[in-house]
Amino acid sequence: MSKMFRSILIANRGEIARRVASTAERLGVDTVHVYSSADSMALHTREARHALQIGTGAAASGSYLNQDAVVEAAVRAGAQAIHPGYGFLSENADFANKVSAAGLTFIGPP
Question: Tens digits of per-residue pLDDT, 6-26?
């Protein structure tokens, strides 16, 4: 039996974030989105029930790739897990280890 979460943080943007959120919400899992200031009016941010700004500007390195900011946002939001979506942090073992060290679950490849 797989573990179900009450809340997950989605560490991605655009259509990827929207699809992860849609599936989670169908399963009754609350979602928290992160975004950069450049994405403050993007569809995935506007549709989010909960959204936290983690960076400024358009560069992903200052937001979506900022591992510490993503983990801190998840902890601050009370999320139990982080779903990295596709790309960005999805296959980053260091990030997965940081997620685990924070007491959260990494939803992604082992």
Answer: 999 999 999 999 999 999 999
Q: Secondary structure of the chain: what % helix, strand, coil (to 5)?
A: 40, 20, 40
Q: How far apart are CA 106 and CA 71, in angstroms?
A: 10
Residues 6+ away with beta carbon under 8 Å from 1: none
- Rounded to whole angstroms, the Cα distance separating 28 from 60 reads 29
pLDDT in tens, 29-74: 999 999 999 999 999 999 999 999 998 887 888 899 999 999 999 9
pTM of the model: 0.92
Task: Round to whole Å and give the CA distance between 57 and 25.
Answer: 29
Half-sphere exposure of 46 (CA within 13 A, CB side): 5
